[in-house]
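REQUEST ID: PR-0412
SUBMITTED BY: lab tech R.K.
PRIORITY: routine
TASK: structure prediction, single protein chain
INPUT:
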Amino acid sequence: MMLGPLLVIVGALDGGGDSQIVERSRDVMHTKVLIAIAGEKPDAGLDQAFDEAFAIFEHIDATMNEWRPESPLGQINALAGNGKPVEAPADLCGVIRLALDGARRTDGLFDPTWAALRDVWKFSNAPNQSPPDPARVKQACALVSWRDVEVTANKGGSCSVRLKKKGMALGLGGFVKGWGVDRAVERLRARGFKNFFVQAGGDLYLAGMNGPRPWLVGIRDPRGSPEQRFAKGELSDVAFSTSGDYEHFFIHEGRRYHHIIDLRTCQPATASVSSTVMSKTAVDAEILTKSTFILGAPAGLKLARTFGAEAVIVHPDGQVNVTPVMQQKLELWPPTGLGPPP
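STATUS: complete
OUTPUT:
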């Protein structure tokens, strides 16, 4: 089964021993959310567990989607720079605080105010796309600043959020999908399930086992077909996130422009073509996958380790750089279609 850049293979490395799996999927927040539970027979209780887990992502879509003007996050963005804070519900406050902490810990490599650039850089995969005007990029880049987000606690758990400059915007996108994965994992475990996985786009959590063996996961080859992979391994009770320059991009005058923006320059990052992070939570994996992609190796591997996480980073010349623990857990082989420049 395939979702985004990560492939969960139902079965063990030896091709046997897989258990009965019940899976459900829904399209939420412009992505497919897939939940699979192993070792359980379909019944009403299982259906209720799926419904509760999917409800987390539906709630996120209603309250934390910056593309919905009526959502609390949409209202925060609409009132940027007007001097008035906007009241936000408790869970959105928690997500914003987590995102700002991620920005602090990565020194702004991850920054939820990237969304000031969302109407500047566009990646529709339409023909004849070209980079935006440099002056426009520079103007929007000045609005990317996590330090200019104010969050003030209110009684009852809510908070007030203010974006200091007109034109600023919070974009929680992939980050909040990771948060949703973590919440869905908590919900399923609270109902007594131990063996399952939850995936939302490029964010994945593998819980427990698939029968007598761990789950088998593969990482997409950045220049291969969606089904091709350059790494695989059996894993349990870990989160994964992958970012690649092949997801949203265009080619202009022989150069690939993609959606992973280095916020130090507000230009597409060039140090990597793919980065995969394994961590304890999907939130940490989401913070780190783009940050490590931007840094490349070896700095990206070092950053991952400061979070207690592991990483696999593919350089544009095809070199695969990996932390020692990930080296032990994955079988790796050279990606296709990459090599040193002529």
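NOTES: Residues 68-175+209-342 form a domain with the T-fold fold (CATH 3.10.520.10).
REVIEWED BY: pending
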